[in-house]
Amino acid sequence: MVVPLPHQRLRLDPVPALFELQENGPLHEHDTEPGLDGHRQWLVTGYDEVREILADADRFSSMRPVDDEADRAWLPGILQSYDPPDHTRLRKTVTRANTARRIESLRPRTEEIVEDCLDDLESMGSPADFVRNAAWPIPALIACDFLGVPRDDQAELSRMFRDSRESRVPRQRNLSGLGIVDYTRKLAARERRDPGKGMFGGIVREHGGDVSDEELAGLVEGIMIGAVEQMASQLAIAVLLLATHPAQMALLRERPELVDSATEEVFRYGSIVETPSPRTALVDMCLAGRDIHAGDVLTCSILAGNRVRGDRFDITRENREHIAFGHGVHYCLGAPLARLQMRVALPAVVRRFPSLRLAVPEEDLRFKPGKPAPFAVEELPVEW
């Protein structure tokens, strides 16, 4: 079956065509013209097939084509753009500064930030926009603390992150985006000269000789953007899911021990990263009964893979497996921090706002389609 792509996800539920595709198997050829070299493009929607492709760095490459100088300037340090062994080298520098003990040590500060931001939300009065007043500042402040951004800079950097994505003024979005790039590069240079107590100070102290200045700056940019933008989008989607499933929200409030399963269900059902970086086949193979040739490009749908295993939001789900954080060598390094934030934020929200609900009809909500930025709700007016 040949499928029309690209599609746009403009609402919380997946594009209906993704489920229709499953009836014809987990692998589908795009209806785009083959490239000049004759290679085809494929959409992968099966859970097992997505996991297989993401895990197999020997047969599939995630390297981006480098077409111009702008691409070359963007690539250093962005982990998704590397294959082993360079990916392994850079990933190790981050992994060793991202231990379970280190993440758990952030819990008191995370709890403090969540409560402060919910205080600010409450002070706005009902109704208020959860995206602007909580979903953005919570992960921004937590990421700043984790990475080593000085407290005096955190509020301004948090504002730039929000405005770079949320401002309705194009010039303001551009200026804020450039401000983030400028700040993160200065932060990388400062950490190189005088390593601090945050994650990047640890990288410089332990692995400074293994990472170039350009790679360190790229690591700072990539991790900060992922830690803030993706988590802000996911937190807003989580609250939207609870607000539109009041029985599930009441269950979490009555049974706080369900927070772990609720967290995984939010990531699974409300996947915000629809497709990771495309993979290029390195060898000829047969996959799901289809002939794939070296050079063919495969786009893996995390959204479809997750939802085909259960298209109902259920925080008591026993099978918590999902691929929201990817799989294999590119498994999201920020997953432990994301889980910590969600495990702190969800119980706090349902405790502080037991009657939380949408302040507008669900059909009036507007969504960002998720390409290339994560899928997100633009505004989330809530009342309590």
UniProtKB/TrEMBL annotation:
Q: Which Gene3D superfamilies match?
A: Cytochrome P450
Record's keyword terms, sorted:
Heme, Iron, Metal-binding, Monooxygenase, Oxidoreductase
Recorded GO terms, molecular function? heme binding; iron ion binding; monooxygenase activity; oxidoreductase activity, acting on paired donors, with incorporation or reduction of molecular oxygen
Which superkingdom is the protein from?
Bacteria
In terms of InterPro entries, this protein maps to: Cyt_P450 (IPR001128), Cyt_P450_B (IPR002397), Cyt_P450_CS (IPR017972), Cyt_P450_sf (IPR036396)
Query: What family does the Swiss-Prot or TrEMBL record give for this protein?
Result: Belongs to the cytochrome P450 family.
Q: What is this protein called?
A: Cytochrome P450
Q: What species was this sequence derived from?
A: Streptosporangium carneum
